[in-house]
## 1
Amino acid sequence: MATIELLRHGREMGARLAAELAEASRVCVAVSRAEASALAVVDLVRFVERGGELMLLAGLDGYATETALLRRFERTPGARCRVYHALSGAAFVPRLWVLDSGARRVVYVGGSDLAAASLAQDIAVNVRIEGDASEPELERPMRLFEELFWSELSWPITEAEEAAYEALRAARKAAVERAPDGRAEARLVSLVAQRIGESRGKAAARRHLLVVTAKNYALCMQTKSFGRRRQAELERYGKGDPFFFHVTGRGGGLRAMGMFVGETFRDEAPSFRGMDGGAQPFRKKFVVLGELGKEIRTRPILESRRPGAPKHWFNGFVQDSHTLSVEDFEALRGAFVAALAEEQGAATPAKS
């Protein structure tokens, strides 16, 4: 009997695909866009080089597909690539994946294209179906793929078509880079992020100060995840909890504001290390609500709220990550938002 799962994030599908490629003998993919970036998540080149069969059908809508990737596959005997020409004006967005391994078949259908963003970053819902290839739930998706792949509107791309397409793709990319104004977009994102930070600061069950080294901070921002040695240690960080990163060391202070999202997951990457050098395999994703180009000092912001405090109170305050009171969080948020606005204002050229 076929099993059906609902995957709630692109990275779930990407991780499953990467593992399933090792056993698959044939992979059929119909997507709206195909990008070389996807190979960092699912190594289809290695798959075809070891003798696997690949049938790839990509759309050209929006000029997102990279024809160089199709050409790369075409140099391998086990790969066949086509593009779908939706001449009716309808967009080509099937996002259908079929993997065969003997009599077993796995099908994915939903929101993920052949691109690193789709398979590692995007919030994309996909349905995964697994079972015997002869079962109706597994047979029909393959039949649909074959209809699309061998359709009268599906063809291998010619050199003339590729040249014309790539010229238009370059022109579109240049136009997108010119408008809309990237600074205006950044201001809108910042406005929304500030509203979320203010709202969650009041409504969340907890608020946090995450104390990290500069090296650990850079890794957290690169992966958009925060880690701990044991899973239980991450349970204090709830979905929707806002936080600040305080970077330790000379010149350190508040550097970024974020909010936790998603569930705890495990990643054994050796680069995930705590301030004491210990492994931090348990991670929790976050979104960035604002990042400063340079840290602002944390102590002066909070010192006025602690009349009569011991001389060295701040050393204990930033000894390790901990929760913040609503009042402390609001004081830090106000100073952070002001510093961020000052930086953004300085980065905006004066109008003549």
## 2
Amino acid sequence: RRKNGREEPWKVKYFGVGNENWGCGGHMRPEHYADLYRQFQTYIRNFGDNQIYKIACGANVDDYHWTEKIMAHIPLWMFNGISLHYYTIPGDFWTGKGSATDFDEKTWYLTLKKALHMDTLITRHSHIIDQYDPEKRIGLIVDEWGAWYDVEPGTNPGFLYQQNTMRDALIAGISLNIFNKHSDRVKMANIAQLINVLQSVILTDGEKMILTPTYHIFNMYKVHQEAMLLDSFLETKQIGIEEEQVCNLHESVSIDKDGAINITLCNLSLSESASIEGIIVGEKGPQIHGSIVTGRMNAYNTFENPNVVKVERFDDMKLTQEGFIATIPPCSVVLLQIN
């Protein structure tokens, strides 16, 4: 630590006791893990004003039995959060997850359908937690999420290096909207991972670095941080190919400390723009600004062409007496800010 320029010890704020203990972390029964958690959390102590946020290992995907047993066997005063892991995988985990860049329109809708499943998982796990913690003191920690594909050809399969397209931009936008809408229970969400692994925000090659479409969505959505969630509702329609059907639009809305309303919208359609007539209840500002991330469904940035997908100015909207109107292009994520 000192060698790298830090004299004072780092303070630990978050402490997860175990990881994926239902699988690679021990293949445990939830009752056995709960007993081990109770034992080892005893020695994770607060010193001075440093209050540690203790996180118990939660479920894999839809293992509601695990959540039920953890909540039943660990007293609320012993932990602050419970985790949840869910990856968006278009193919089969063991036999072939699918290419990050080479996919057809049906696979596009299949993948986004699986990304939208995050809402169902959070809703159902939250209902179980509510039975034991109606005051919502325990946070749901979605500490592994994101798209998982086959590795890029020619790369080490153990390094999980994959490219990142507009499909991933939509996965990120949809997921962050879902987390926003469940912010009463979801207190942390960690994409896996940040650099060069799975749905990264940054890819590197030696001294070279590029920002992925996912990075630009995270950068766009940062306006929601420290803001207050506003109730929002969309009239949508089902789109897709054959059985792979999804809603055409997805959104979340917040208001910041200065009164600015931030609206993030995803158009999941590959072919149709969406005309929106927005109604805002209450006061609204006199100015509206927009930005957009859009492109072909499999567009991605490379070290040779790092700006194929980027944030651009969006102008196809205006304020109205009731709120605003906007036309959202297909395959896009849009931020509207009413100041």
## 3
Amino acid sequence: MTNQLWITRCPVPTASSVAFDRGLLERDLGPLGVAVASLQDAPDEATRDAHFHHGLDGLVREGGNVPALWARSTGTATRLVALTWIDEYQAILTTDPALAGDPARLAGRRLGIPRYLDAVVDFQAAMALRGFDAVLGLAGAGLSDVELVDLPATRSRTGWGPGERAPRGAWELELRALRDGVADAVYVKGAPGVAAARAAGVHEVVEFGSHPDPAVRVNNGTPRTITVAAALLDEQPQVVARYLATLLDAADWAGVNGEEVARVFSSETGGDRDAVRRAYGDARLHPDLREDWLDALDLERAFLRDQGLLGPDGGFDVRAWVDPAPLAAARTLRSATHEDRIHA
């Protein structure tokens, strides 16, 4: 049993970030005798690294699927209790005007792959590989038809610390590779990606975060995972259910408070409000376990396995990882006082 709930979320649009901003987590979990803390505010990096490896008692995580899938594939005892799907800006950028607007012209070109050598799990490389694979597929090509160029870097494993939310130097490595002539094209996403696309001399090869085929949009952020430590769910299922109920409340509030949500997401992502609106549109934050979202997550898992980016159990069954009971219980908890709670 734990009386300390660590909640971690990526610097992207999440219901958890809204819930923290509104004070909803303390309001709802405090009466259960549970203290709530943001993992990003932990004073030591070793603790903050649990955002990636999930090896911390009392941890709940809402964020990109690559670390969650990797942790599960390495044997970390977690449960998938919900997913979210928030389409976001995804693009391939270049400084070569000849590539602008035509992904077919990427064939034979040098595509930059960030390689963070001190990362617990290199989700940045995974995102770029998946993004390039999706875009090349639109032109009937694949990763074997291009030259993948490593862009090595080192940095703090988490890239943030106490009191910090927005990522540091997002996409600077990629833009520098374009300007130095090391790579012909790079992958970017999110509000910081919108800002990168606005940089002088930069052109979009293709923007595909709004592509009509959801399979093309599948990446680290689509869908995002909500995972919990298995021991926490086994020992205190009521805490996990209440957390998810609070996220549903936060998502409802976000749906009718667009300007405030833009402020929260600007703080989380480091993008200005215009970039946030361009990147995420009217983001719907509600957790769910839709079958098509689970199919998309399994598509992502298979890609990561085939690229050698997962652990020894990379062929695990995504649906066997799911525990639907907490989300069902969370929906039951949404009582007749729901309207009063979300407007609190």
